Amino acid sequence: MTYLEKILYLSGKYISQCQFVVKTAYRLSFLNQTKKEGYISSLDALEVKESQALSLLKEHMHYSGEEHITYLQDKGFSIKDFALLKKVLLRRDYLISTYYMDNSEALGREEVAIYESKIKELEEYCQDCDKLNVELNKLCDRFYSL
Predict the structure, then answer these.
(1) CA distance 115 to 109
(2) What is the C-alpha to C-alpha distance for residues 21 and 32, in angstroms, rounded to an integer?
(3) Which of 1, 29, 71, 116 is deepest in the core (most CB within 10 A)?
(4) Per residue in 44-96, pLDDT tens?
(5) How does residue 37 score in pLDDT terms, banded at 50, 70 and 90?
(6) What's the CA gap between 60 and 54, in Å, rounded?
């Protein structure tokens, strides 16, 4: 795989991982409502919340990262998780909108050091995204283990 192919691959990987992060964040926000509404672990209540989360996610599919952040604010996320969620979603917006324009001159020089630094940067993005998705999924799974 060439350096540019690796950069394109990692960009696509990050965007796809972000889709799962958003889905999991919506799931968790709705599952957190079961706590507020007094449900302990009623499977029926959890299934209803899962269904509601998926429906709302489909309605919000076109949202920017900032719009998702605004919606998900105060939905029961820890400060640490919400900060990472915000970081991940804003990076996604940057990657989709201007990343390649901002880096076209540097990438156009075809210097190995630049390629490697961009690859390392994108790999770190993917690691943050993966770490957040795993953490959010663990929090969702706790609702089913009660």
Answers:
(1) 9
(2) 16
(3) 29
(4) 778 888 888 999 999 999 999 999 999 999 999 999 999 999 999 999 999 99
(5) low
(6) 10
- Residue 38 burial by CB count (10 A; 0-12/13-18/19+): exposed, middle or buried? exposed
Residue with tokens 């889905």: 23
Q: What whole-number distance in Å separates Cα of residue 89 and Cα of residue 67?
A: 10
Residue with tokens 């919606």, as numbered in its chain:
71
Cα R_g (the chain), whole angstroms: 18
E strands, the chain, are: none
- Alpha-carbon gap, residue 95 to 8, rounded angstroms: 11
- Encoded amino acid at 53, one letter: A
Q: Residue 95 and residue 89: Cα distance in Å, rounded?
A: 10
Residue 74: both structure tokens together? 């105060």
For 27, half-sphere exposure in the C-beta direction (CA atoms, 13 angstrom radius) is 20
> What type of residue sits at position 32?
N
Q: Could you count the other beta carbons within 10 Å of the beta carbon of residue 113?
A: 9
In this structure, what token pair is assigned to residue 92? 């996604």
* Rounded Cα gap, residues 100 and 94, in angstroms: 9
